[in-house]
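Q: What changes when NAI is included in the input?
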Amino acid sequence: MNAIAPPRRRPLRVAIAGFGAIGQALALALDRGIPGFELSVVSAREKPAAARRMEQLRNPVPVLDIAELEPQADLVVECAPAALLPSIVEPFLRAGKNAVVISAGALLQHDHLASLAAQHGAHIIVPTGALIGLDAMLAAAEGEVTSVRMITRKPVRGLLGAPYLTENNIRIEGIEAPLRVFEGTAREAARGFPANLNVAVALSLAGIGPDRTRLEIWADPTVTRNTHRIEVEADSARFAMSIENVPSDNPKTGRITALSVIACLRKMQAPLRIGT
Ligand SMILES: NC(=O)C1=CN([C@@H]2O[C@H](COP(=O)(O)OP(=O)(O)OC[C@H]3O[C@@H](n4cnc5c(N)ncnc54)[C@H](O)[C@@H]3O)[C@@H](O)[C@H]2O)C=CC1
Ligand SMILES: O=C([O-])CC(=O)C(=O)O
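A: The predicted holo structure follows.
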């Protein structure tokens, strides 16, 4: 007797909102093939430039405005400037569709998004991104966590333009030794460094929240990589981890970030899923 073949589900159509360092790398990966997904549409600020970048794909897709994405896709991957987060994900959540969010820092200013997802049976998924160890952080947070501390060191050009530096008149151009530019909570860091500290917010959401997660930021002319060290004290374990990220075309963004999004999508459809 022939075995009955399981029904073949059609691939999930992916919209990429933001066609920059992360968006382009993800588009190329989807174009090469991630099982269970197909790229259906992207959004970019400058359409002619995006159309030129689209030529790198074997199967080019339309470049539309953010407001036009939802009907064209089953899932959105947000990889745009943080301020655009609500306009990108709200239409998808309202339609009961999932959103992968990489501008994690902006979630703190828009906590209605999680309620919106719950109301419509949708999910917001935050990949580990440029960080390390969210699996251990999530597991430890099932028990008692006493402290979470993160120390970030970035080359000067990875921090230039951060509102906290401007508001506090902190000049980092031309410094010759490491300078600690911030000490505070993940919530304060997200406000002051919106394009730099998504990782601290992701860590805090996995662990003990943005008001108890402590953070130091150093502008460091001696490093070439964005470096994050995490130190956690919990009743289940003590752990310390660090990651040194090779910058992508965008000096503020580590190359591993796009790879984390690709791995996150792959895991969503995988028959065998590894990690918390
Ligand atoms: N969670 C994490 O670990 C990390 C998160 N990030 C965050 O991810 C986001 C994307 O980062 P990158 O790809 O490096 O940025 P990027 O600056 O290279 O790309 C952003 C893209 O969004 C596009 N864009 C701007 N306005 C738009 C509009 N109105 N409509 C459509 N597209 C628009 C820009 O043209 C640009 O191509 C940023 O918010 C960044 O802070 C970055 C690194 C790590
Ligand atoms: O390390 C990186 O590549 C980026 C980073 O800090 C962030 O956006 O949180």
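Observations recorded in class: Residues 18-23, 43-46, 66, 79-82, 84, 102-104, 129-131, 195, 198-199, 202, 250, 253, 257 surround NAI (ligand 1) (CB under 6 Å).
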